[in-house]
Amino acid sequence: MFDNGRVTDLRPRLPSPLQEVTDDRFARHGVRLLLKRDDLIHPELIGNKWRKLAPNLERAAGRTLLTFGGAYSNHLRATAAAGRLLGLPTVGVVRGDELAGRPLNPSLARCAADGMRLHFVDRATYRRKTEPDTLAAVLRAAGAEDAYVVPEGGSNAAAVRGCRALGEELRDHADVVALACGTGGTLAGLAAGLAPGRRALGIPVLRGGFLGEGIRALQDEAFGGRRGDWGLDERFHFGGYARVTPELEAFAADFERRHGLPVERLYVAKSLYALVVLAEEGAFTPGTRLAAVVTGSPFTA
Q: pTM, whole model, 2 decimals?
């Protein structure tokens, strides 16, 4: 990838492991539950973060990386870690200028410790970040006019094409593949890689009902049109991004006890909860091989 002698730090574990677990909540409906352990791809560039960042790192070719995220963004942390491992400068544009000057939360503190320069912007500017004039102003203010820009969540055409490999790894092993979605880039690529007759199911973790349009736009940009059989179930956001209710916390803790698997709360727990409900609703026919993508692991400071 790079000729700086440190590329060995980025060697991923691919394909990621596929682990079948026995869970009576699925077994009694004749459904086999498989966990696609993308959380084991790399110790710091975890899960879909590796799959989306790797092609963008190739395209950046040693330039400063600038990207966007909220105060608890997994994507910001992964980008900062990649910069440290490869010796690349990184800039994180953080939503919320009210955070500037305050003590950093553990997530942003990790970004800073990895060498990422944090640039805080007000929420109105952040909402307009894809507009050319606003983006140019942000780049100037951050002192990064020549940076390679990676969008929020890492989802662009290069990332979507990188995530197609996830679907290819599951072509012969699963009938339905489910994962939690933020920006939708992983689902857009995953669906394109699945075999005909297989289905991808996205569980949005944000409120709003806007994700379908974004996924279609990403597939248009990456592949020239819609690819694969995919759909969304919007019912399981638990109030929105970074919202974890007592019910969801109890569910995640119970899943951990049942299967000895640390469950990341903001994404993975919501997708697993959704699958339990859907199984009870009869959404999967008996004999279905249901793969849940474990896209991340719990953050520890």
A: 0.91
pLDDT mean values, one per 10 residues, the chain (301 residues): 47 94 98 97 86 93 94 92 94 96 95 98 97 98 97 95 97 97 96 98 92 97 98 96 94 98 95 98 98 88 56
Between the CA of residue 38 and those of 44, 59, 258, 268, what are the distances in Å?
A: 12, 23, 20, 11
Domain boundaries, the chain: 7-44+156-293, 64-146
pLDDT for the residue numbered 45: 85
Q: What CATH number labels 7-44+156-293?
A: 3.40.50.1100
Smallest CA-to-CA distance from 277 within 208, 203, 209, 210 is with 203
In this structure, which topology does domain 64-146 adopt according to CATH?
Answer: Rossmann fold (3.40.50)
- Got the DSSP string for 69-80? E-TT-HHHHHHH
Q: Report which of 114, 93, 217 is spatially closest to residue 157, judged by C-alpha positions.
A: 217
Distance separating alpha carbons of residues 237 and 254, to the nearest angstrom: 19
CB 40 within 8 A of CB 297: no
Place of tokens 């997530």: 107
